[in-house]
Model the fold of this input.
Amino acid sequence: MPVVMEWDWLTKTREWVHARLGDLGIRSTASPVVVKAWSRSCVLVFATDAGEVYFKAVPFYFAHEPKLLRYLADRLPASVPEVLAMDVERRWFLVRGCAGEPLSLCRCPDLWEAAIHTYAQLQLALSGNPEEVVALGCPHRPVEKLVEDANPLLSDSGAMMKGRYGLCFEEIAQLRSRDSQLESICRRLASYHIPSTLEHGDLHAANIFVSPAGCRFIDWSDSSISHPFFSLFAFLEHRKASPWLPDDPTLRARLCRAYLKPWVTTYGSWSRLVVAFRLSQLLAPLHTAITYYRLEQLNINDRTPFKKSVPYYLRLLLQRIGAVQHPTWAGGARSTLLVPASSLQQASPSC
Done:
């Protein structure tokens, strides 16, 4: 398996899962099925007499995920899968399958609004104690350090030129000339004093399960303590987001409003939050590019997804910060920044 090297790993895994299920009075009824196996994780699903149970193993660079999941399950149990067993040292964990279906299969706009609203409430609930999450090993990536964190990437021409989306020399030169502009945007965003809290890192619709009982969020491997609004970038700008989103021309604005609404009471007026949100979406591609660049630098076998992603997100960053200089700019065809500030401001905290 990609996550480990021992030839008998699958046998050991099955024995561990069966033993942990036995502790709970649950019996496996079929051989496990491999859901995914690659450099980032190995996921198996076990059919049992109590429903589907999922096993996940993660590599050393995602060692915080099982600890974070247990932390969230203790504090916000309705928001994550039910944890059945865990081996922190081996980075293994076992969870009950989520009820309902992935949000990516849902065509009801109300469910999308409810999901992102619930996620904002989760972030707010954790915003008072970010140091507890950092202590679990979750990366600390405050917006104030975003440009500093980006320096190794922006100095690495090879990483920026790799893959199908590789940047050209002119684009690289433009990015490097924008460091003062990026610093200015970071300072302005920080001035709104939105607290750093848990940022999922890969909050696309397939990582959210919805049911009549509520929403559960899965796959926290890419999580960090950072600016919370960065999460909306993956939610709305993931490469698969457009075909997943219900066909409603007003939906992006509705989703932005649903997400921002819980923040209003504590962290400022609606108009201030709208400005902070739009600033965050300028910087979010850089935050994401750094995530993939750091993964690319690790000594792992399958780095293809990472090297393709780095220039892809850097080019999107360049498009966004370049467009800021033009007064008539309205954002890219798929951008959250296409949502006019006026449409966000039509909603009040009581909407």
About this structure: The longest strand covers residues 41-48.
